[in-house]
Design brief:
It contains 19 helices and two strands. By secondary structure, the protein is an all-alpha fold. It has a two-stranded antiparallel sheet with strand order 1-2. It is flat and about 75 Å long.
């Protein structure tokens, strides 16, 4: 029987689609490369298409603008990470879902450092849409973990802490290392896995898995009588005070105006002209005191942080036992944050948009807060493994992630109701989850 004639396949659509997919992937890869090299602010369409080697019209075939491409790149990288997380969770026991997700995240960062740096560091600089996409990715990973936890028997122990916040903290810990050029993470996955396991509780009795506020304590006696705020504008005419005092008044008005405008419009959306108008100063005054917007932003960050640390340290050293000192310290911290919402936005949301110096200040502030945990090593039971330095870093990174989430979601953080959760995050790695809960319950009982 004669063989039927061979039909040459000339279906063009799949080939065309593959070509278009390739162009889109090149643009996404170009965005990752340019943002990693120059930062979000300098990741222009021109730079991206030059990196991707495609034409400008081709770019606009796929993306409405630079920000749409940036957000799509975040989504694409997180999809790759989620695939890794999903596979790792599926291969292990359900109770190990969170440690598996952490191990997968660390492994992904080691194997794909450019993509990981883009997702875990540069995405934080990209404005509201980029932050929303970054947060959606973390929420998706957290749902994978929580779905596995639902298959665990009630008497089996699983970590009792907010999963999305913990995963966000892991990304922040990795971002610090990637920013320094590290690509080999040694025992980091083990250390972070041991850290989350220190919160283990029977699955049926978990009560720290959400950011649900509790009763807020009374205002800390270690805070100043009134919250930090901008000074009043000086009256007309020549003020009868020293020139240095006049300059300081103007300086602080500019700082607070910068914080307020950044809260309204984001760092990239705030302009010097708007700052001057809100502060009530002329251009020559602004530029005599600050070189540019970044310097004014940095001054506000430093001013607010010094206020926050002074309040926290004063409260910490007033307590009797270490757990009580942690409670009082973070009571002052959360209430200071609630009273300074514009500063919370500066320090916990917008700093990554400013550049390397601002990011370094964020990481320095994380290290400063870790000092309050060091005494925990003296109170740890002998039968518990001490938390590693990476674990302490992760504790503070989780707290920063929670403040970031609350500030982004609400505008005003409302952290005071989460005091018990933050103290739980600090105490459990040293004392164990049950002992931590007992101490927190005693503190909460005093509120009633």
């Amino acid at each position: 029987m004669a063989r039927p004639p061979t039909v040459k396949r000339t279906i063009n659509t799949p080939v065309h689609n593959r070509s278009k997919a390739s162009q889109r992937q090149r643009l996404l890869g170009g965005m990752v490369a340019v943002a990693n090299r120059d930062g979000y602010a300098a990741a222009s369409v021109s730079e991206v298409i030059a990196q991707a080697k495609v034409s400008r019209p081709t770019f606009y075939d796929y993306f409405a603008d630079r920000d749409a491409c940036f957000v799509a790149a975040i989504a694409a990288v997180h999809a790759r990470l989620d695939e890794r997380v999903r596979g790792t969770i599926a291969a292990g026991a359900p109770r190990h879902a969170l440690t598996g997700a952490i191990a997968a995240t660390v492994a992904f960062a080691g194997e794909h450092p450019p993509e990981a740096r883009f997702l875990m560091k540069e995405a934080l600089a990209g404005g509201p849409a980029a932050l929303a996409e970054r947060d959606r990715g973390l929420a998706a990973s957290a749902r994978l973990v929580e779905a596995a936890f639902k298959r665990v028997d009630e008497d089996e122990e699983i970590p009792d802490l907010p999963v999305a916040a913990a995963l966000g903290a892991v990304q922040r810990v990795l971002a610090s290392r990637l920013r320094r050029g590290e690509v080999a993470f040694g025992g980091l996955a083990h250390d972070l896995g041991a850290w989350v396991e220190s919160y283990a509780q029977p699955a049926g009795s978990r009560h720290w898995r959400t950011l649900k506020g509790r009763a807020a304590p009374a205002r800390s006696p270690y805070l100043p009588p009134t919250a930090l705020r901008a000074p009043a504008k000086l009256g007309p005419g020549r003020p009868r005070i020293a020139p240095e005092a006049i300059a300081e008044n103007q300086r602080q008005r500019i700082m607070f105006a910068t914080a307020e405008l950044v809260q309204r419009h984001g760092y990239n959306g705030a302009t010097v002209a708007e700052i001057m108008r809100l502060a009530g100063v002329e251009g020559r005054t602004f530029y005599r005191l600050f070189a540019d917007k970044e310097e004014a932003f940095s001054a506000m960050h430093e001013h607010g942080f010094q206020y926050l640390m002074a309040a926290t340290a004063g409260a910490f050293f007033a307590g009797e036992s270490w757990p009580e000192r942690v409670w009082e310290a973070f009571r002052a911290t959360v209430q200071s944050i609630d009273e300074l919402p514009a500063f919370a936005n500066v320090a916990f949301v917008e700093a990554y948009a400013v550049g390397p110096r601002a990011i370094q200040r964020v990481e320095d502030s994380r290290a400063a807060f870790a000092i309050f945990l060091q005494e925990g090593y003296r109170h740890q039971p002998e039968d518990r493994e001490p938390p590693t330095p990476a674990a302490l870093e992760a504790v503070i990174a989780t707290i920063f992630e929670i403040v970031y989430v609350q500030t982004r979601a609400r505008g005003r953080p409302k952290m005071a109701g989460l005091l018990a959760l933050l103290v739980h995050l600090c105490l459990a790695p040293f004392l164990g989850a049950r002992a931590s809960d007992a101490l927190i319950d005693a503190q909460l009982a005093r509120l009633t």
